[in-house]
Amino acid sequence: KRSTRTGGNGGAVVVRVPPGTVVQEEVLEEDTDEPVYIDCGTITLNNPTQLVALGGEGGEGSAAEKLQRGVYRARTPPRGGERKR
Predict the structure, then answer these.
(1) Which residues, including other chains, have CB under 8 Å from residue 73's CB and lie 6 or more apart?
(2) Of the candidates 9, 62, 67, which has an alpha carbon nearest to the alpha carbon of residue 75?
(3) What is d(CA 52, CA 82) in angstroms, rounded to the nearest whole number?
(4) Is 33 exposed, middle or buried (0-12, 13-18, 19+ CB in 10 A)?
(5) 43-60 confidence digits (pLDDT tens)
(6) Cβ distance 78 to 69 under 8 Å?
(7) DSSP of the chain, one letter per residue?
(8) Torsion angle of C-alpha atoms 71, 72, 78, 79, degrees rounded to 10
(9) What pTM did the predictor assign?
(10) Would you say 23 and 50 are in contact if contact means Cβ atoms under 8 Å apart?
């Protein structure tokens, strides 16, 4: 049985937090490299979910190489997701 829990077939990561949690993004200032926190939203009972970062699209994996023996085909690299602090 193949594992389909990672890569392109992986599920969303959900982090449970209590209502009232303030979601912030850390951004470094260009001139001083000091961290600045930008409010992205607040988790409330009326707004219980918030999308913080998008995930990437998985690559082809090593099985794509084995399908055509003797024929080299350039692999498509995976597209990375967002990284946030």
Answers:
(1) 64
(2) 62
(3) 9
(4) exposed
(5) 999 989 888 887 766 666
(6) no
(7) ----SSGGG---------TTPEEEEEEE-TTT--EEEEEEEE--SSS---------B----THHHHSSTT---PPPPPBP-----
(8) -110
(9) 0.55
(10) yes
From residue 63, alpha-carbon distances to 5, 8, 10, 15, 76 in Å are 16, 14, 17, 32, 13
Euclidean distance between CA atoms 84 and 74, whole angstroms: 31
Asked whether residue 25 carries a pLDDT value surpassing 60, the answer given is yes
Q: Which amino acid is at 16?
A: R
Give the span between the Cα atoms of 43 and 21, in whole angstroms.
5
Structure tokens that stand for 45 in this block: 């009972």
Q: What are phi and psi of 65, to 5 degrees?
A: -70, -30
Residues 6+ apart with CB under 8 A from 29: 35, 36
